[in-house]
Amino acid sequence: MAASAAARTIIENCAIATVDANDTEYASGYVVIAGNRIESIGAGKAPEGLENVVRRIDGTGHLVTPGLVNTHHHFYQWITRGMATDHNLFNWLVALYPTWARIDEPMVKAAAQGSLAMMARGGVTTAMDHHYVFPKGSGDLSGAVIGAASDMGVRFTLARGSMDRSEKDGGLPPDFAVETLEGALAATEETVRKHHDASFDAMTQVAVAPCSPFSVSTELMKQGAELARRLGVRLHTHGSETVEEEQFCKELFGMGPTEYFESTGWLGSDVWMAHCVHMNDSDIAAFARTGTGVAHCPSSNARLAAGIARVPDMLKAGVPVGLGVDGTASNESGELHTELRNALLINRLGAHREAALNARQALRLGTYGGAQVLGRADQIGSLEAGKLADLVMWKVDGLGHSTIADPVTAIVFGAAAPVTLSLVNGKPVVEDNHLVTVDEDAIARAARSESQRLARIVAQG
Length: 461
Known about the structure:
The structure is a single chain. By secondary structure, the protein is α/β, with parallel strands linked by helices. Helices cover 36% and strands 21% of the residues. Strands 1, 2, 3, 4, 5, 14, 15, 16 and 17 form a 9-stranded mixed β-sheet that branches. Strands 6-7-8-9 form a 4-stranded parallel β-sheet. Strands 10-11-12-13 form a 4-stranded parallel β-sheet. The longest helix is centred in the C-terminal third of the chain and has 20 residues, at 440-459. It is globular and about 70 Å long.
């Protein structure tokens, strides 16, 4: 549809942080949306005489930013929150895998709805799920997750995960919770062919995502990379999350995680890794040289005592870095906007101290950085003419923020800001801090019911 014929929405009288290449900001400006694209953006009032204006929004007291982009999550964990709260990663996995190995399609659907609702209500417009647990006979789990995202109206990347190294092979998952090498590859290819959309304004994309070095065979890593590149999709996995993982790789493969990833074809501009906490200078240089991205998950890293990722050093080297909630069994809040604050604060506990990150760098991690990591920086992640109309209006004149003069500082350093409006493809997903596409109370009831059913199944053995 031509821009002149498209229905227009105008937002004006708002502060704007575009997160473009120049970090352009307006103390009081406007955004014009035509159809599903940003048509224009600037200081002052919107241009006069625009045709087909169907909605005009007064943004007084608000900051408008790009929508937040989540780069790592495990939706199914929504129904296992609050468990194994005092464990490190490996012990936490051992404690929870017997429960996760009993999930089924209704549970995954309810968990996905809960995870998506919490993120969307907090300003996430592009979500991502790394789903890698496929118990035998559990139903269409990928379809359940994709359907939940479609119903919510958020942009979505499914990282179709897999595991083929079970307890009998020296891995952590129970034997009945893993797939065969052939089965995992075939199911992953089927998911890509059925659901991946490569178009500019795609709502659903799929990545190839074997789980981690300690739950996946070397052959699945290698063939998974070959599959992704043959199909033209991105690659995702966990990497360098803990000291124990590094020891595991050295004992099993005779090399550290980054060397192992490179040997299996898992470094490149089409790859992003979750966590990357324990990276030395040569690891960071390898990621920068190859354009490999990182999903930084500060709350989960702290919850599991994994450590502090070297985000300032990664950014200085040119590594693409976005933010991730991670699964809600290791970040019970399930909110990405709180990760802006946590990324800044936790990184200031590291070697760079107060110079580690500032408010605008944190906002960039949660928006443009995430778009880079997901391979969609030309479409989303900043407010620029021609990009998709995925944006958020944060209320910054209320009790929690009214005495912080700078609105970007307000949403990063301050309490979680209410979302007055969130648009995806120019369509409202949140209005007045409530989801408009789904029933929040019904989602909460369904998730509670499925969580209780899972607990009963586990108790029965």
